């Protein structure tokens, strides 16, 4: 039995400059370059990922993403423009000044109705984006692929989401597992099909820390209320919130490990994953702190400049158009700097860890796999981009 | 590099006649049909201008790629080079561009870069640019159609369908919101409460609406704010600013502004504008993507659009105001003088008409002057005492 191991060779420095450069170009082109930016970063990450000695290859292009975006634009312009206005109309029709708390809550819900109207499209876009990504990924010269099932996925996802919300999250593992099974069972590597085995109930232990965080918040809240101690409430909520956040990472990693270990390719090749919550949480928290610290200094300087110029303007001076341009450019440069830093301090280390945690078992069977026909890649993520689904890479 | 050295080193004169051997290296070949790599030897055949990829398992022992059809897949990592061959007519269509050749030898890669003329060329699929152009035009047309035709039309018909009491409630909340924005606080009230001033305002309203009844119950208030401005919110909510009343030379001038705002209310302009903004705002952020700063551009774009759209509404409201003043027997000279004063003070700083939400001040003053020529006998809109009370309303 031959095993292959995930390896990641991406270095920080080239990725930092690549992200900085492409983000600045995106600003300069008023956002148009974002399709090429995403492509170049994916090429970097895919090429840095290997299973043993064989690297992955990303064959997507910026131009086809731009085209997909234009296609999605034509459809979404009509749909969203109409939907939004009609919803706003009903918003006014049912509008009352929020005198009671219930009315205020009602209006908040009204805002989310807009969100619900877009939700099916969001799920649809998410599936299409994944399908495009698979269709443009090759390993050992063989391409991946997924079946066209965007609307069915949206339907399934909406059903599972409704069940999860109605059961107050108790059926979340069912949703996680069933959706993962939906996409895995429709994914291919060459002429070999993936298959998701396992049971959804097995994901329940993964909810452990989410549940503990929830209990901490509720118990400390109740205790604080009983003995009338505001301090206890604040501390309890804070601690519970941090546990909850890490619990969310824990759940995702747990689900990733479980579903990966229960995937089979072509009925022969199996997988193993041992990603660690601590490792991912470390990059999220420490990396996040480092990025904020690195950005704090330049942002404070800009803030000071803006504050003094604004003051002089109030005192009768006039804020020149030149000053506004300089401040805006500085601000954008800092944003690009921040994007590049979080790429190398948060995103890439997490990708590296996840890749290295994966093992492919019984790999000799790979030799029997043949190429699959090309996929036009649907709308090349156009919908996902327009709806801002699963941003970045 | 496994470039073969001759067994005996050539002497100096031999270099002149024996050409340099073709560069050769080991590589990893993926045929694009099966999931396995082959260790191959690769030679740049300079004379035939071929890249020869050799392995016993390959058909006839080698695959040849014409050098001008070899492309590199850049990946930004700086680790090795992955090559592919763009479509050649003699290969099976389904195999075109599928095979890959991985190289790591830096000397060989350098030689390859020198030998392949189009290594970094981007090959667009046939008809791709045409397709992009067509869809770009389509997307622009869809956006334009939505923004300039469908959304305004729909906003117009929806505005009429909203029950009046809902419109009033919505308008009131907008006025409160503006109050909050102007004061920057939740508690400070801007509305002036002078009882005699309010009575004077009511008298002015009655004078105007007696001759031209309005569909809406008007709710007119004065904000204690130092700005020469007035606005109408949905559902008959009209706000005059103290600065405007102080700047006015006569009550007739205030009446002209009030009549103009009533014109907006009766045409349901504020409601229509809010509906239209709801429709277009989403479209702009959609088109510009999610990169930071797009929000500001979207707002600016919406502002320009809003301006061109409302200029027609402003002209209509001016016309309504002139008719209302004439019906009430109020002198339109006040209107003309108000615009002339604004023009004298701000005319030089006026925005170009294209991006300004209002028609040029000089034109509006001229229209008002023309109206005075045809109007009947007039009396001041309110008494001198009422005018004094209105001016002192916020004290």
Summarize the structure.
In chain A, 37% of the residues are buried. Among the domains of chain A are: 139 residues, no CATH class; 58 residues.
Mean pLDDT of chain A: 85
Structural class, judged by helices and strands of chain A?
alpha+beta
Identify the strand order in the major beta sheet of chain B: 4-3-2-1-7-6-5
Inertia-based shape of chain A: globular
Q: Please provide the count of β strands of chain B.
A: 10
- Structural class of the secondary elements of chain B? alpha+beta
Portion in strands of chain B: 5-15%
Query: Which pair has the most extensive contact?
Result: A-B, 66 and 69 residues
The SSE string of chain A, one letter per element, is EHHEEHHEEHHEEHHEEHHEH
Domain module tally of chain B: 2
Strand arrangement in the largest pleated sheet of chain A: 1-2-3-4-5-6-7-8-9-10
Principal-axes shape call of chain B: rod-shaped
Please give the share of residues in helix of chain A.
Answer: 55-70%
The major β-sheet of chain A equals:
10 strands, antiparallel, barrel
Number of helices of chain B: 12
How many β-strands of chain A, per DSSP?
10
Strand content of chain A: 5-15%
Element string of chain B (H = helix, E = strand) = HEEEEEEEHHHHEEEHHHHHHH
Span from first to last CA of chain A?
A: 33 Å
**Tally of helical segments of chain A:** 11
